[in-house]
Amino acid sequence: MKIICVGRNYEEHARELNNPTPERPMLFMKPSTALLSQGKPFYYPDFSRDIQYEVEVVLRIGGSARHVEERFAPRYYPEVTVGIDFTARDLQNELKHKGHPWEIAKAFDHSAAVGTFRPFPSGQAGQGLVFSLHKNGTCVQEGNTRDMIFSFDRLIAYASRFFRLQSGDLFFTGTPAGVGPVSPGDVLEGYLEGEKCLHCEIR
Ligand code: MG
């Protein structure tokens, strides 16, 4: 199982981190050891002093395919939830600055928290999914998938030119504006279409 992620897929978030809007999806991956299942706590790692949350809509891939055409992409993501792309922002900034790969800042153990999956809504219902993250009961991030620079279908089509999609793979589809730090004791809750599907305590 692999976890494919896209960076800078919402304009406002790209701007808040002073990044240009990308012309093509900017993909990176996390290994299977990055997965943090629904309800499990996140232990603050000792290599960072600035772990940040990024709430994202997460697709679960069903089926095996390469070179998927955009119009056929929906059949490859039957399930959806929200997740958190935990990021060691201090390490990431340092690595970006040097032009180095940023795996240690993004793909470390338990950096990919996912909520409970549910069937992807069919037709129009799947077009504009609203999602949010609450930290200690206060809403800190809100997004609508209509605002994605690259749609789910474009992401699937693009990624599958390079990486074979396999059943059970996860796709983190980018975070909206409002990313911020976490501290031990924080409680994070993720919502999709108004329904809570993710709970994660920071320890
Ligand atoms: Mg992200």
If you consult CATH, what is the topology? Fumarylacetoacetate hydrolase, domain 2
Amino-to-carboxy terminus distance = 26 Å
Total number of strands: 15
CATH H level, superfamily name? Fumarylacetoacetase-like, C-terminal domain
Radius of gyration: 16 Å
- Helix/strand-derived category reads alpha+beta
Number of domains: 1
Number of helices: 4
At the first level of CATH, the class is Alpha Beta
Hetero groups in this structure are: magnesium ion
Q: Into which percentage range does the β-strand content fall?
A: 25-35%
Secondary-structure element string: EHEEEEEEHHEEEEHEEEE
CATH architecture: Alpha-Beta Complex
The overall pLDDT average reads 95
Largest sheet: 8 strands, mixed
Helix share, percent: 10-25%
What do these coordinates show?
This protein is α+β, with helices and mostly antiparallel strands. The chain has one domain: Fumarylacetoacetase-like, C-terminal domain (Fumarylacetoacetate hydrolase, domain 2, Alpha-Beta Complex). Helices cover 14% and strands 33% of the residues. It has helices at 11-16, 89-98, 103-106, 152-159; strands spanning 3-7, 26-30, 35-36, 51-53, 55-60, 79-85, 87-88, 112-114, 118-119, 130-135, 138-144, 170-172, 180-181, 187-192, 195-201. The longest helix has 10 residues, at 89-98. The radius of gyration is 16 Å and the shape is globular. Residues 5, 7, 54, 56, 85, 172, 174-175 line the site of magnesium ion.
